[in-house]
Amino acid sequence: MYEDETSHNSSDNRQTNSLNLRPLIKNRQGLLEAVVVTLSSPDYSLCTPALEFLNELIKDSSINLPEYKLMRFVRKLHEQDVFTTVEKLMRRDDLTGIAEPLLVFQNSVKVMLKSWRDISIDRKRQAHQDALAHIKKAAAKIVQKPDVSEVKHQNNAQTNGDSINGENVSWQSAGFTSESPEIDLAPMGLLGLMDLADFVRKNPGFYQRILLDQSVLPETQRCPIAKVSVSVTHILYDHFEIATSPEITSTSTISRDEAEKSIKPLLLTRDRLHNALTHAFLRIWSAAEADSSELNKIEKLVRLLAVRMVGGTTRRTSVREVEQTLSRVTLEELRKWQLDSLGIAQTSVWSQSLRYE
Question: Is residue 257 part of a domain?
Fold first, then answer.
């Protein structure tokens, strides 16, 4: 995550009746760690109140913290394996007594994701600057054999630190469609930038290889990796219905069948799903020998892939299983699925038409 000491989110001035629990975390070293240990307990009478405490903490932080502090808090949750621990809790055989707080936690995650999606990219904010700088810095590490005429210029740039810091790298050579990265990132805002920066951080060699391979292609044949990443963020955002999540409270009554359908452990592994689908997008693009005008067509295929392979899972399906499946699906299979889905849609249209004749 990235920190922005000057940016503030509009929720700073909101009034809230929630408990101010953050000082407990600040003043009691090891409290969050203890909460995580308790969440791992097989005794629901212990892990349920721990999860409820965590839910109140997240709610309070989401309402009251400015953007950079909320991102710092979420990073701390990641460092303490909170999301992994809750994901395991979501997969337990018996959810009696804990389904409601699990759904509250899941909804809180969606609320945070939506809030980041609604924040427009602003390069004046330090957090946004840092994320973009990280992407450029990674792109600057591409090793190429320079022309003799360019050696002196590159040596001067390295002396000034420009090459190392990515300052002499264009946004287009870093995987964007123009010199205004805000354009590609606009559909998913800060959430899209965070996902792209996370992808680059976890796949530096792959990212650099993609940029290097595409640098020798005609511009119309290049696959803008930044736009691909944002498209995948959008696909997952829609798949998990983040924008339309219903309000869940700890006093809600959830049946066993509702819990099985509503609790989505894979939401807490969204970063890994984003990584796998981005790889799949680039692989399918290459197999289709697509050009820039066909990016939307490939996106539709990847959206179908997500519907089939992510949407077809159960509460017990592991993210590892999904990753392996996504890596094996071929372009031919996707095209067949697409034709099958079009056939079903056409049949539905015809049947509706016949009803009124």
Answer: no
